[in-house]
Amino acid sequence: MPSNRRQFLNQTAFVALTLPLAMAVVPAWAAQPVVEIIAFAHPPVQSALKPLREWLVAQGSKIKVIEVDMETPEGERRLKALGITRHVPVVVLVGGTYRHVRKDGSAVEFVSFPSGPGTPAGVKGGWSAEDVKAAVQARKP
C-alpha cells in the first residue's frame, strides 16, 4: 500500500474514533453559563458585590465571568446596547440578560445595588446574590 494511502486511512480512522468524544465534550463546554458584571469600580459598589463575586470565584471554571467598568467607553457602550440610560451603579447579566423570573414567578432585574451585606445603609436592593445564583443554576445543563 502506498504511504499516502496508508497515512490517509490512519487519519480517517483517527477522526472516526475521536469525533464522538469531541461531540460529547463540545455541548457541555458551549453550555457554560456566562455572568457579566457591569459596575462602578469603586466603593460602595465593590463592597456590595463582594458576596456575589466570592460565590462566582468559588465556581471556578464552571461559570465564565466578564467584568466591565461602567465608567469606560466599553461599559457605556454595553449599557447603551442594553437600553439602560438611567444612572445605575450595577448591572448583572446572566446569559446576556438582566431580567429574570424567580421560581415563585416574580420578576427580578439585576440592576442597581443588590440587597445584603455591603450595600449602603438606606439603600433597598431589589435583587440579591442568591437571585443571581438561582438564575445561573437555572441555565446549567
Secondary structure: elements and pairs:
Elements: H1 3-30, E1 34-39, H2 45-58, E2 64-69, H3 73-82, E3 90-94, E4 99-101, E5 107-109, H4 129-139
Helix pairs in contact: 2-4
Structure characterization notes:
The protein has 141 residues and is α+β, with helices and mostly antiparallel strands. The protein has 2 domains: 1-30; 32-139, 3-Layer(aba) Sandwich (Glutaredoxin), CATH 3.40.30. It has 4 helices and 5 strands, in the order H-E-H-E-H-E-E-E-H. The protein has helices at 3-30, 45-58, 73-82, 129-139; strands spanning 34-39, 64-69, 90-94, 99-101, 107-109. The strands form 2 sheets. It has a 3-stranded mixed β-sheet with strand order 2-1-3, with helices on both faces. Strands 4-5 form a two-stranded antiparallel ribbon. The radius of gyration is 22 Å and the shape is globular. Residues 25-29 have low confidence and may be disordered.
